[in-house]
Amino acid sequence: MKNNNLKIILTGISVISANLLFSQCPINFPKAIDVCLEGATQAKNICFENSDGNLNLLFGGENLFSFNKNVIDNQGNDINKLVIHGANQPNQTFNTPNIPPTSYRDISYEFASAGSAKIRSFRGDNWDTYLEFLTNLHSATSDVPQVRMHINHDGKVGIGTINPQAMLDVKGGVRMGNIEDTGLNNLNNLVIIGANNRNYPDENATYTPDFSRDISFEFAEAGKAKIRSFRGDNLDTYLQFLTSPKANGSSPITRMQISANGNVGIGTTDPKALLDVNGNVNLSGNFLRLTTPTTSGDAIIQRATEGNLIINSGHPNTNSPESSVYLNYAQDYGGGTGGVKIYDGGTANHVDLKMITTSELPGTFLINPSGGKVVISDNTIPATPGDYRLYVTGGILSQKFKAAVTTSTQWSDYVFDKNYKLKTLEEVEQYILANKHLPNIPSSEEIIKDGGIDLAQMQAKQMEKIEELTLYLIEMKKEIEDLKKQNKELKEKYKNN
After folding, report:
1. Burial per residue of 22-41, b for 16 or more beta-carbon CB atoms within 10 angstroms, e otherwise
2. Per-domain residue ranges for the chain?
3. What is the residue-averaged pLDDT of the chain?
4. Can you give the pLDDT at residue 8?
């Protein structure tokens, strides 16, 4: 005995074995008596202390471990616990989170000729406490375990970082799951169990999900962004992507949907095609390529560097000897009647190009400039006086040309009317001498001033002169016949004399 404590000197396991063999009951010690394994000095003693039924393990007088029994928790339950008494020196980890603690307690797993793995705990500068998990690298040459996971005082867990900024903060890649498929491939999946309630389409055959699962990105004093999934009324599943507008940050709106059939809708939750965009599309590239499984090649809509739009409909093949560009072709989506409008960059001046079909004019191509004219020319636009709607530089070559005459007054049959006043040839001569052109025919100065001649009108005027010449010839023939008659009578009279 020393200092009222029972001292047991263990020289071999036989002492304990002897007590166990010859004792009918455990060795009992009074509550105030400790069992110590005495070291060279008192500071090196290892003592077992009975503290009201709880066993404390002391090293050099400092309580490091406690085995507590019959402890009552907050719910009134009896619990047993092992207490590791941590170092009481405060660490400033909370205020300076990137500085490792200088005072801590470890549970260390140590291996011969290898490194160690540790579970570490330490306190902060107040009531805050921390947990860390450390392992040693395979390539390490000494026992220097590194912190792999850190649990902060506020419950935030950091993997690869000792300064987690979220409830789970991972510095590095994440792989979830470890499922092997039938092909022995290693599949890693993050599974979010979806709501099993069925969603049914509304009267427009689109789904409005009342039951869904969201991955939500939420921001303080701002809106949310979500990735949403829901099921339909059978085995069909859907994905939606939602963001909050600037003016209403708390109410996310569906921006894109991937439907069960693979159709992707942007700006719509009811996509009718593989890509259905309800709104404007801005392509920053130079061209849009439309591929085809046939040998005709790809069709390309391209914006050239000078700003021109190029449509290349592909290479010809045996089935289609020539490539074509179809506008308003009624194939799968039907055709409209608006045609094509070409604007000059404003909102007023434009040209309508369209096909019109009536009983009198089936399949007629209409060119309708808004208040202007149609000019076929080079880059220069010549002056086109008057109300003429078509101007062609360099002339027109045609196998057939017809000028429209809509009323009888536009033609010259009036010359043969009995009331028509035909000028005498003397009058015509005097007019020509005075004006240097025929009566009722425009002069060269007038034609230049008017910018040309009206073919139908000029043809009618020329026909007027031809008909007048015909009348002159008829009258002249009558005069010649009369002269011939007179000449014959004179010859007969002269012969008889």
Report:
1. eeeeeeeeeeeebebeeeee
2. 6-84, 105-175, 213-312, 327-401, 408-489
3. 78
4. 47
pLDDT tens by residue, 474-494: 999 999 999 999 999 888 888
Yes or no: say if 43 and 64 are a contact pair by the CB < 8 Å rule.
Answer: no
Strand 35-37 and strand 46-51: pairing? antiparallel
On the question of pLDDT at 148 being above 90, the answer is yes
Interatomic CA distance for residues 109 and 136, integer angstroms = 11
> Closest by alpha carbon to 108, among 97, 119, 94, 121?
119
The tokens describing 107, both together, are 């549970």
147 CA to centre of own chain: 42
List of E strands, 251-389: 253-258, 264-266, 275-277, 287-290, 299-303, 309-312, 340-343, 350-356, 364-369, 374-376
Catalogue the E-assigned strands of 207-298.
213-218, 224-231, 237-243, 253-258, 264-266, 275-277, 287-290
Candidate from 198-202, 205-209, 385-389 with smallest mean pLDDT = 385-389
Sign of the Cα pseudo-torsion (486, 491, 496, 497, in order): positive
Rounded to a whole number of angstroms, the distance between the first and last alpha carbons of the chain is 206
Mean pLDDT is lowest, of 120-129, 153-162, 188-197, for 188-197
Residue closest to 351 by CA, chosen among 382, 396, 389, 377: 389
